[in-house]
Design goal:
By secondary structure, the chain is an alpha/beta fold. It has 17 helices and 9 strands.
Length: 366
C-alpha cells in the first residue's frame, strides 16, 4: 500500500546518518517519549504500558509529545513501542510491572522446555502479530506532516534472548550465561530465529513509514570478546546484511541503519564493520578515543552524554555537551548525531533536556 506522506521538511538526521557533511549535528534522545514528561502520564492515563503500545492513536500521540514540546530543537521522532513486542509475537507472555519493569511469567528454562520447542516451531506472521506497530507508524507519519523523520526500532537478538530466558531485567545474567555455556547450539538456533524476525519487523516498519531504523543491543556489555563474537556479532551482522534485500523485495529503498551495542567497549572496532551506517555509543566511551578507533571508515557515531547529567546543573549539562562537541564534531562537520549515551531516565526535569538541546545548537553554530 502506497502512503502519501507530506514531504520531509527537516532531513538533517538522514543526511548525517549517511555520513554527509552537514550544517550542524542532528539531535534526539533515546526514550524521549516517556515517563519524565508530565503529558506522558496524562495521555497514558490508567492504561497498561503494552496497552499504550497496542493502541495506534495513543502510541502516535506519545511519540509526538517531545516533538511538540521541543519544537525546532530536535530532529527526529522515534515510535513509541518496545523491544519486547518480538518475544510477544513469538508466543511468549510479557507483562510490564509497575516500578519493576518487564516480566515474563514463564521464561525459557532449557532446550528441553516444552515452550522452547513451541517458540522454535512457531511460524510467526510478523505483519499480523505486530500490525499495531505499523499502524502507529503510519498514523504518526501522517500527524508529523513532514516536520522530522520517524525512527523505527527493534531489540537485538542477544538482548531479546536475555529477557526470554531471564524472565526480566537482571544484574547477574545467570540464566543467559547458563544457556550460552551449557546449550550453545540451542542458543544460536534461537538467536538466528529472532534475527530473522527482526529483519521482517524492521522492514515492515519501513513499509509503514519509518525513515531510519535502530537495533538496540542493550545487554551487549554482558558478553566478553569471545562470547560477543559468537552470540551477538553474527546476528547483528545478519540484520544489517539482510534488511536491504528484504526492503528491495518489498519495492522499498534502503534506509539508514543504527546499531547500539551498549557496554561492549571491546567491540567498537567490530561494530564499525557490522554494516550499519550509525553506531551508538554509551557514556563510558571517550569520544576522542572512539573517533581514533573508527579511523577513516564512513561510520557515524551517535551519543554519548551521560543521561545522569540531566539530574545536575545547567552548567554541568553545558560542560557535558562541550565534551561531546569537542570529541565528535569540532573540525569535522560530519559523522555525529548528538544524543545521550542511553535512554533518558525518570525524574529528569524536562527543562534540563531542553537546555541540553539548546546547548548543542549554540555550541555547534557556525
Amino acid at each position: 500500500m502506497e502512503h502519501n506522506f507530506e514531504p520531509l521538511q527537516n532531513d538533517l538526521l538522514l543526511r548525517a546518518a549517511r555520513g554527509e557533511v552537514v550544517e550542524r549535528p542532528p539531535m534526539w534522545v533515546m526514550r524521549q517519549a516517556g515517563r519524565y514528561l508530565p503529558e506522558y502520564h496524562e495521555e497514558k492515563g490508567g492504561r497498561d504500558f503494552f496497552e499504550c503500545c497496542r493502541d495506534p492513536e495513543v502510541a502516535s500521540n506519545l511519540t509526538l509529545q517531545p516533538i511538540d514540546r521541543y519544537a525546532c530543537l530536535i530532529d527526529a521522532a522515534i515510535i513509541f513501542s518496545d523491544i519486547l513486542v518480538i518475544p510477544q509475537a513469538m508466543g511468549m507472555t510479557v507483562e510490564m510491572v509497575d516500578k519493576k519493569g518487564p516480566h515474563f511469567p514463564e521464561p525459557l528454562k532449557s532446550p528441553e522446555d516444552e515452550q522452547y520447542g513451541m517458540v522454535m516451531e512457531r511460524n510467526v506472521d510478523v505483519a499480523e502479530e505486530l500490525g499495531y506497530v505499523y499502524k502507529a507508524i503510519t498514523l504518526t507519519r501522517q500527524k508529523l506532516k513532514g516536520r522530522v523523520p520517524l525512527i523505527g526500532f527493534c531489540g537485538a537478538p542477544w538482548t531479546l534472548f536475555c529477557y526470554m530466558v531471564e524472565g526480566g531485567g537482571t544484574k547477574l545474567f545467570m540464566q543467559s550465561k547458563t544457556w550460552i555455556y551449557k546449550y550453545p547450539e540451542a542458543t544460536k538456533k534461537l538467536l538466528a530465529k529472532i534475527a530473522d524476525i527482526c529483519v521482517d519487523h524492521l522492514a515492515l516498519q519501513v513499509k509503514a513509514g519509518a525513515q531510519l531504523v535502530m537495533v538496540f543491543d542493550s545487554w551487549a556489555g554482558e558478553l566478553g570478546p569471545d562470547s560477543f563474537s559468537q552470540f551477538s556479532e553474527p546476528y547483528l551482522a545478519h540484520i544489517a546484511e539482510k534488511l536491504p534485500g528484504k526492503l528491495k523485495s518489498l519495492g522499498l529503498e534502503p534506509v539508514p541503519m543504527t546499531v547500539f551495542p551498549k557496554g561492549a567497549y571491546h567491540a567498537l572496532d567490530k561494530a564499525c564493520n557490522l554494516g550499519y551506517d550509525v553506531v551508538g555509543l554509551d557514556w563510558l566511551h571517550d569520544p576522542a578515543e572512539a573517533v581514533k578507533i573508527r579511523g577513516d571508515r564512513n561510520v557515524v557515531f551517535q551519543g554519548n552524554a551521560d543521561p545522569g547529567v540531566l539530574y545536575g546543573t545547567k552548567e554541568g549539562i553545558t560542560e557535558a555537551v562541550q565534551r561531546t562537541v569537542n570529541g565528535f564534531w569540532t573540525g569535522r562537520k560530519r559523522g555525529w548525531i548528538a544524543n545521550l549515551g542511553h535512554g533518558i531516565t525518570p525524574g529528569v526535569n524536562p527543562d534540563n533536556l531542553k537546555h541540553f538541546f539548546e546547548e548543542i545548537h549554540r555550541l555547534t553554530k557556525e
